[in-house]
Predict the structure.
Amino acid sequence: MSSENIYILGIESSCDDTAAAVIYNGKILSNVVASQKIHEAYGGVVPELASRAHQQNIVPVVSQALKEAKITKEQLNAIAFTRGPGLMGSLLVGTSFAKSLSFGLNIPLIDVNHMQAHILAHFIDEAGYEKPSFPFLAMTISGGHTQIVEVKSYFNMKVIGETIDDAVGEAYDKSGKILGLGYPAGPEIDKRAQLGNPKAFKFPRPRVDGLNFSFSGLKTAILYFVQKETKLNPNFINENLNDICASIQYTIIGILIDKLKRATSVTGITQIAIGGGVSANSGIRGALKDGEQKFGWKTFVPKFEFTTDNAAMIAIVGYLKYLERDFANQNITASARLKI
Ligand code: KG4
Ligand code: ZN
């Protein structure tokens, strides 16, 4: 890429993870995440608590990232930070911190779009990881996002489908709440799904035109189904938990794969890169592998630490923008609804 020696600090604080990472010429030297456990008791992220925890975490997390990278802050060439989208109170902590640090060190500031970062995480240099080539489709699936994006180059991307209500991870987490599982419920539903019968119960598929998604109806259908069955048998959930989880997972993965199939046929693009916490799901991974056999897809799944919210993905975007000298100035503000 470049003969320069560039160190970038990436800072991420858009939701409930405070994260910092150092990247050196495209290679990650450190990737530190402080996850906020406090939200577990509430079954979802509480924005006020999130911003307070970011304020407590940001200095130690950044110090740790520099320490693990074995550099001092004076060696940094630029500071990259998540400008949005996300929770305003959370974004403000990272934004103010990044602005102050770049001002204090007198080095460039680089604003990063969190959704672009989930996609560009595929370009982190990792031994043995083959990067997608342009153009490709990116599907970002997490507790906060569900999007299909057509990616023509690093900074030329277009959202071609997204959720009109809940994100796919929310569908997992809210279904888990109905079933009495802990938060976040995605990993447990996934584990149990592998032990159950995916066709035991049938849940309706939403009817949404084009490449958009809708998951709120599924959650309601599951709620009514569980209420009805527990009236007949109070032990219904316990006796059928693995089958219920398998049936939910089968429905959700079916929805995702159906939209991906449409996206490949609309665009003619068969390279598919996924990101976001739900990309850890065994069902989606299996379905993508099947797609390689059945439809000739080429699929890309990055290392788990680069798919959930993290600062390595912010740092790689920082690096790519640094090469283009695409810098922000001190007037920049956080943007909760920033679009790709
Ligand atoms: O990317 P992430 O860590 O944070 C954001 O939401 O931005 O994603 C967390 C989401 C949660 O909704 C969690 O339930 C879901 O990812 N998740 C999973 C799995 N692992 C995490 N969902 C299904 N199967 C999994 N194995
Ligand atoms: Zn995210």
Observations:
- Residues 236-267 form the longest helix (32 residues).
- Residues 7-124+307-323 form a domain with the Nucleotidyltransferase; domain 5 fold (CATH 3.30.420.40).
